[in-house]
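Worked example 3 (structure in, sequence out).
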């Protein structure tokens, strides 16, 4: 699962306009965005902060904290570490910043056609028996191995 998430995060950064050379340098952080502690999955916020710094649109950490449901602030030691992370952010030219923002605006403007294209691709490449399965049927909490084999084959 970590490999899949790493790929998703990598592709998200590339789609946001982060240069591939920069994304490559963040590989270790991208592979460790989540952590498993005593059977619970947690965000590794420091790696999230590292990866957010490579998006050249300003400080997005507060937005991400709100989106992820962070309920408490960082203690002073971690706050100092976050400051060092921000200081280590890649330095982008004005042109790169403008290009990234323009690319994001363009994608937002085209969101409907991008979603339609995604579904057309998904539906044309996904086996029919999977596309005809209802969403409630896909709930992992209700699956057993025999159900999985029956539903998928």
């Amino acid at each position: 699962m970590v490999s899949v998430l790493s790929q998703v995060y990598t592709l998200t950064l590339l789609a946001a306009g982060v240069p591939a050379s920069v994304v490559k340098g963040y590989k270790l952080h991208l592979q460790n965005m989540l952590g498993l502690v005593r059977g619970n999955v947690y965000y590794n916020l420091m790696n999230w902060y590292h990866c957010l710094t490579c998006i050249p649109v300003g400080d997005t950490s507060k937005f991400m904290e709100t989106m992820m449901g962070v309920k408490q602030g960082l203690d002073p030691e971690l706050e100092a570490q976050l400051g060092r992370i921000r200081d280590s952010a890649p330095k982008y030219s004005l042109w790169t910043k403008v290009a990234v923002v323009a690319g994001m605006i363009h994608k937002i403007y085209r969101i409907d056609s991008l979603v339609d294209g995604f579904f057309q691709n998904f539906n044309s490449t996904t086996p029919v028996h999977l596309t005809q399965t209802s969403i409630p049927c896909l709930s992992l909490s209700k699956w057993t191995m025999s159900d999985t084999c029956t539903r998928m084959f």
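Notes: The CA atoms of residues 17 and 103 lie 7 Å apart. Strands lie at 34-37, 40-43.
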